[in-house]
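Lab meeting minutes (informal)
Scribe: AK
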Amino acid sequence: MAKASSPADNAGKQKVRSAEVGTDILKALAQLSPSTSLSRLAEHVDMPASKVHRYLQALIASGFAEQNSATNHYGLGREALRVGLAALGGMDVLKVAALPLSQLRDALNESCFIAVWGNQGATVVNIEPAVRAVTVVTQIGSVLPLLSSSTGLVFGAYLPERETVELRDQELAALGHSTSDYDALFASIRERGLHHVHGLLMPGVDALSAPVLNAFGQIVAVLTVVGPTSIFHADEQGPAAQQLLAAAKMISWRMGYEVAP
């Protein structure tokens, strides 16, 4: 015969349920930010307005929500901001990307790496090499060119111009190109969310790259897959590109970026 729940058990379950409802309302406030009406919030969480209002009062009392006295709309409070900033401060893109990077390598059996923007340009900080006799390996610490690598071009498309202008002008002079030669390319990379090259940096080597974004929509890293042209197809519509995009979006989501469905 099943054991009857004690009053203490029931009270504990009620507290857990209340906490779940409270966090659902906090998430909704974030999704509807910067502010929303009670009716819209209640519709969003699919709860009666009277119930949502009770939870809002508790959240306001604890500083996690606030109400605008002029509009009566609700938004996130100062304590929610402090929690959010603390979470963002603890985000390390290398730690967040470690598992997705290895999973991407396992799925494609091609060398995969992540690069961040350093004082000399796009710098490789972690690599998962392909598991086979002949691999294309980029060394940790390698600095990739801005305009002659898929990794660099993705950084160039997403970074503010002030961060790339010095390196860009140096490479433009060496290549004999002008800034206007890359304007349309950068816009296209931002629109597609990835870029591919065929033998641009190294003959016989193809590469696919996608950006990793943070909660503010700023680029924090670039995820790249490289492989020999004979067996790796860097097609932006192909399965490798789709898996790369999925991995980059997962890392971006973990970094706080609101990934479109």
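Next up, CB showed the second protein from the same session:
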Amino acid sequence: MANVGPCGGRQVVVMDRVARSRSLEELRAQIAAAERSYRPPAGVLAFGVDDLDAHLPSGGLRLGALHEVAGGGRDAVHGAAAVLFTAGVLARLEGPVLWVLRQRDLFAPALAGVGLHPERVIYAEAPDEKGVLAVLEDGLRHTGLAAVVGEVSGLAMAASRRLQLAAEEGGTTAFAVRRWRSSAAAADYGQPTASVSRWRVSALPGGREAIPGVMGRPRWLVEMMRYRGAEACEWELEACDETGHLRLPAELADRSLAQGSRVRRAAG
């Protein structure tokens, strides 16, 4: 069955054992409709932060590939900053996005706040992580989507290879947002996968007052734990704005670029 859910997107496709076949057919029909009017871009997507882009091969995030994003610190379980970081990237792509969930706790107005508006998103709800991965792979084999996003706790090497291969073949970008039920389970994030990059985004104490009495933009610690062809690195950045763009805090932008980031070696 298919019905509109609280996520606020186009449609939530709820899959159970009885309705799964029909739901997949409905999902494929939505993707096919988008496919007729959209083709995903090739190449890379710049973040628009000079220090970050200069550190990445080809000057931006590789499109048509699999990327992993997780929350850090207290946000490791809920992954709110990781979700908004991912949504900010998607906001700067054109075309529809498939977002596959395990539970309906995604707050669509927050995604819209970083530029990913509900009319661009097709939400699908799967009963388990195996279902999430299956829908992701199915979505990647169509060329009508800008990107696919799946919320999972685990990502085995074999599953990540299938997703990476499907992303390369179809030219569609994939994001695995890693969410755990407990902080202890987050240790799994150190296990190797076939993804092109792995990120961890942690919320930092509130931004400084740009105007007396008015708080500045929230801040994140953005850790690039792994990226093919680059050393691990981390940046303190202002969170995505309403267009999905990150920004180097003013006091860091006034210094040399080297002071705005820290190159480090990290597992994963």
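CB comment: The CA atoms of residues 77 and 261 lie 26 Å apart.
No objections, moving on.
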